[in-house]
Amino acid sequence: MTTIDPTRSTHHYDGELVVFLIGMTINRPWRPDLWLPTFLAMPRMLRELSEDPDSGLMGYRLTFEGRGPTVIQYWNSVDKLYAYASDSQAKHRPAWAAFNRRARKAPGAVGVWHETYPVDRAESIYVGTPAMGLARATARVPVAQKFSRARDRLSRSNNAHEQ
């Protein structure tokens, strides 16, 4: 069972922070033969990244919205994110090549997208939640009294827990 923390907490992290969103749109749901391979590729990549402590992936969460899944990823380096994306020995490159082959045969059946956000400051608050988001990817710490407001936490960059 997931532990719920009733206290007010925030995240703590010192270092480069990158939020990477990646998702797919299922445009022809009646054709799982066209979109299912794309859907199934992501768990293999996430497993590969999670098993490598030097990959740069700090954590992730999966959401579903609109026409498909979105994975919110937290990275400790833009360079490591790009290195993984271009590594011919990693699972991403073959999956990307396979997606492109399928997309040429059935244009528009499935879409993929991503957004990359290097973050210089981040603010978070968690009350009555299990470990999630930045706190799960980094460290969850109590909110210090002088940082009880979001504006105060954001002004302290990633060190909102310090007294």
Fold topology:
Elements lengths: L4 E8 L4 E10 L5 H19 L6 E9 L2 E8 L2 H9 L5 H14 L4 E10 L6 E4 L3 H5 L1 E4 L7 H6 L8
Antiparallel strand pairs: 1-6, 1-7, 2-4, 2-5, 3-4
Commentary on this structure:
The protein has 163 residues and is an alpha+beta fold. Helices cover 33% and strands 33% of the residues. The chain contains 5 helices and 7 strands. The chain has helices spanning 32-50, 78-86, 92-105, 133-137, 150-155; strands spanning 5-12, 17-26, 57-65, 68-75, 110-119, 126-129, 139-142. It has a 4-stranded antiparallel β-sheet with strand order 3-4-2-5. The protein has a 3-stranded antiparallel β-sheet with strand order 6-1-7. A hairpin with a 2-residue loop joins β3 and β4. α1 packs antiparallel against α3. InterPro entries: Monooxy_af470. It holds the Pfam family Monooxy_af470-like.
What's the shape?
elongated
What is the number of strand segments? Answer: 7
Uncertain runs with pLDDT below 50, 5 residues or more? 158-163
Helix content: 25-40%
What's the SSE pattern? EEHEEHHEEHEH
* Order of the strands making up the biggest sheet: 3-4-2-5
Beta strand %? 25-35%
Quick check: average pLDDT? 91
Helix/sheet category: alpha+beta
Using only C-alpha atoms, the radius of gyration works out to 18 Å
For the report, how would you describe the main beta sheet? 4 strands, antiparallel
Give the termini separation: 33 Å
**Count of helices?**
5
Protein name: DUF4188 domain-containing protein
InterPro entries: Monooxy_af470
Pfam family, one: Monooxy_af470-like
